[in-house]
Specification:
Blueprint lengths: L6 E7 L6 H9 L6 E6 L6 H7 L3 E4 L5 H11 L4 E4 L10 H6 L7 E5 L14 H17 L13 E4 H7 L10 H11 L4 E5 L15 H25 L1
Parallel strand pairs: 1-2, 1-4, 2-3, 5-7
Antiparallel strand pairs: 4-6, 5-6
Helix pairs in contact: 5-8, 7-8
Bound molecules: guanosine-5'-diphosphate (GDP) and magnesium ion.
């Protein structure tokens, strides 16, 4: 519980056996979570076994993709507040308190990994990835009249279950460009949001999305297409 609200944590996980134990235990240590869900996305390693052993509930998602994994978790989570994070060593569990503090005032509090003070040595947030994240975030901000945004791809965030319920039937993205859809649908459904900087550390194990330049560019382009298509749909429907 946090300030009288029940809390769920969702970890999308594809082959995270190196990290999952530490990730689960670092969040458990905060003693605020009512539910820890690991959405196992066709892992071929011991991710699921280790998760169960460490007290998490494992849900299987057969459709491959970061978006599908998060969508499954969002459907199943019971908490009034739902925290999304990655079990890959890049995020700090303690930062969930910094996000949660703002939940009295907003429907979604999103982490941002682009504040230089919060970017740790050797993390995967070099010049071009940081610039790309900021530029796409600014585009979303201006096209959808949102408060200042500086990161379009930070999984670490909190959202109210009550808002998620309205969005669940509307999600369309199953791959790695899912987060802009969450932000846009939150806005379309009348949800408010704010960004808060979070620490970003070196990834343990292989990064499956932004680990390669080509994949990062692909995800960026998919995000742009998605953002413009939502904007066009809104113009047509008004
Ligand atoms: N790429 C990918 N990641 C998945 C999938 N399902 C779950 N994930 C998880 O999504 C998160 C993001 O992937 P990651 O490799 O850390 O990408 P990065 O954050 O861009 O470095 C990790 O927690 C993965 O374990 C999937 O099908 N594909
Ligand atoms: Mg990651």
């Amino acid at each position: 519980m946090f300030e009288g609200k029940t809390l769920s944590l969702i970890f999308p996980a594809k082959d995270e056996e190196e990290n999952i134990k530490n990730a689960i235990n670092s969040f458990k240590a905060l003693k605020i979570f009512d539910e820890l869900l690991v959405v196992d996305n066709n892992s071929t390693d011991k991710t699921a076994d280790i998760s169960v052993k460490n007290g998490a509930k494992v849900i299987k998602e057969k459709n491959p993709g970061y978006g599908f994994a998060l969508r499954k978790g969002l459907k199943i989570a019971n908490g009034e507040y739902i925290v999304l994070c990655e079990p890959d060593g890049t995020f700090s569990a303690k930062d969930s308190l910094r996000l949660l503090k703002q939940m009295q005032n907003y429907d979604m509090v999103a982490g941002s990994r682009t504040n230089p003070k919060f970017i740790k040595k050797d993390s995967n947030m070099g010049f071009s990835l940081r610039l790309g994240n900021i530029m796409v975030a600014k585009l979303i901000q201006f096209l959808f009249f949102l408060p200042p945004l500086s990161d379009c791809g930070c999984t670490f965030r909190v959202i109210k279950k009550e808002k998620v319920k309205k969005m669940n039937p509307k999600f369309t993205v199953g791959k790695s460009h899912f987060l802009p859809e969450l932000v846009i649908l939150n806005k379309i459904n009348g949800g408010t949001m704010i960004e808060v900087p979070v620490h970003y550390s070196k990834r343990i194990g292989k990064s499956k999305i932004t680990g390669s330049k080509i994949k990062s560019i692909q995800v960026g382009f998919r995000m742009l297409l998605l953002i413009f298509s939502y904007r066009l749909k809104l113009i047509k429907s008004n």
